[in-house]
Amino acid sequence: MNLGDQCPLDGGTMRPARQGVIDPYTGESFSIWSCDQCGLGQTVPSPDDIGRYYAPDYHGDRHGASGGIANRRRLGFVSKTLGAASGRRLIDIGCGNGSFMEAARQRGWVVAGTELNPLDARARGLLVESTLDELGDFAPVDLVTMWHSLEHIPDPVSMIRSVKSIVKDDGIILIAVPNFASLQSLVTGSNWLHLDVPRHVSHFTRSSLTALLGAENFQVLHSWNLELEYDVVGWSQSFLTPMTRGRTIFFDMLTHRSEQGTRFKRLANFVSGIALSALVAPIVLITTQVGNGAVLIVVAQVRQ
To answer: Residue 102 contacts by C-beta under 8 Å, 6 or more apart in sequence?
Structure first.
């Protein structure tokens, strides 16, 4: 990316925003450029072989012990928007191990999903393919969910266009992404946990996400700005990261990812992380009240 390049959403100018953002798993350094109008961020450079940055356990148990709570909360968003399932159809894009799909199926949804590595989700007896095109026979659907997957997609404009083609005329899209313009992001800068470069290709603000949806005639109906574990651990791990040379030891322990560091370092990070999580809880409450949490969750529907 070069200075003066145009934003793919609104034609604004892309400029350097964060430098020296470290991938905690490879130690490589990246930058983030952002639009001077809508605030959309893009990771620079975007690797040609992104697959090598995904460890085998990256798509697994993303929430650790909080997984059940996360699924109930997310189904709450769905219920507030669409009511009871009543046999309606749902596609979950970037479904991970399929735990949300399984929870939705238990609530009466007919479910399918996509995942780059679909084996874990298929092991639950779920219909999961590697691409959306492979689920063509399942469409049209009442609901498409994207729980922290849109930021991983190299061409989000084409993805939203594809989603539009598979939802019913009155269908809904429900998206959750990290909030690049949040207080948490601004305070912790290049150490912000939810930058997750280079796996996160795009970094969304409220205005850039609205612009992305609006380009395909989607209108935002509802929004929320809190997913508790993302907000709390986002603060605590981001404060710890400078002390661990860019590694995310506390976060990896919580999400059952490959262990980093010695036993002593893991213990020290766990104790420090728990203490910091308790200390930042009031900040999370305040930022949520003013609509500036670490996560953006939006419900959108095609304008009639």
So the answer is: 111, 124, 126
